[in-house]
């Protein structure tokens, strides 16, 4: 949360008998400017506004409230299959699943991953290594 404040002041005259303001002086300064604010970077999320423009205001103007909302980026889990005997990449960065940043992988992802491995085992390939799937999607932009 970022809050910016501009201060305005004025001198008024008050009737001490009636306790009422009898004169309202001019505002000082007469205008003010809120500077531009660039939306901060949050890994794995994209703001709906890249920045909030500078804005000139007057003392009589109502408070301004601007909300920047962040949406989770799409992420993907990929796999690569390498034949170590021939030093050949059989499948490179194939998408296994996708989802939003910092959310759990969909149900069935592990089974899908296992079935890909099993298909290669059925063709006579030997499993050298198999990376553990993450519990949830990461926050990078790739």
TrEMBL record:
Residues 75-140 form the Mucin binding domain. Residues 2-73 form the Mub B2-like domain. Gene3D superfamilies: 2.60.40.4300, 3.10.20.470. Pfam families: Muc_B2 (PF17966), MucBP_2 (PF17965). InterPro entries: Mub_B2 (IPR041495), MucBP_2 (IPR041558). This is Uncharacterized protein.
């Amino acid at each position: 949360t970022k809050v910016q404040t501009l201060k305005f002041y004025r001198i008024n005259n008050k009737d001490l008998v009636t306790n009422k303001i009898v004169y309202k002086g001019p505002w000082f300064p007469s205008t003010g400017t809120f500077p531009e604010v660039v939306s901060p970077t949050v890994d794995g999320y994209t703001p709906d506004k890249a920045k909030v423009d500078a804005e000139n205001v007057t003392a009589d103007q109502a408070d301004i409230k601007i909300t920047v909302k962040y949406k989770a980026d799409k992420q993907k889990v990929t796999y690569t299959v390498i034949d170590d005997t021939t030093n050949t990449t059989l499948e490179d960065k194939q998408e296994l699943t996708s989802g939003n940043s910092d959310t759990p992988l969909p149900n069935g992802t592990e089974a899908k991953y296992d079935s890909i491995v099993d298909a290669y085992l059925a063709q006579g390939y030997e499993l050298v290594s198999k990376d553990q799937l993450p519990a949830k999607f990461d926050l990078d932009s790739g």
